[in-house]
Amino acid sequence: MLVTEEPAAEELDRGGGRGRRALWVVGLAGAFVLVVLVSSATVPRWWAQRIGHQVDGSITQGTVLGLVYGFVFTFLPIILIVLILRWRRTWKTILVALALGIFFALPNLMTLSIVLGTGNAAHAGDRTLDVEAPAFRGASLVGALVAAGLIAFATYLVVSRDRAHARARRARTELEGASEPERPESSG
Description:
Blueprint: H1 9-55, H2 59-87, H3 91-104, H4 106-116, H5 120-132, H6 136-179
Helix pairs in contact: 1-4, 1-5, 2-3, 2-6, 4-5
């Protein structure tokens, strides 16, 4: 008589759960790679055409629109991430904050993909921006730098104010401690 032991249901569930999880991870990674490949071939052209239609060949419009896009889509994501992380700092909220920050920074990231990209779509987008949206790329960079500088300056002001308040509290405490007369101990 041959007796075989059957694995416990818990062991099957655990092993099957790992397999399903690994399958999901591999599937999501594959989908992500596919989306990145398709996006790198289409997004730079599409984005350059959208900006080109908005600017319509005007240097003034290219400059103004570039400043606005650069400033807003740098300032907004950074402030959003900072506010979310001040509210709560768990790994889930950090991931959500980063995802929202990336989402709100997409216009700047798409412009960056045209400027730094080496593929055919990036070169086509570059030529489109040269003709249809002059001064947009440079103004977008200036707007992003202004937003980052403004945030850095505001951070400096907040940190220096907090340090000044802390020094004032310490000085006040030391002054109160030094000005209190010593009381003779009573024996009782």
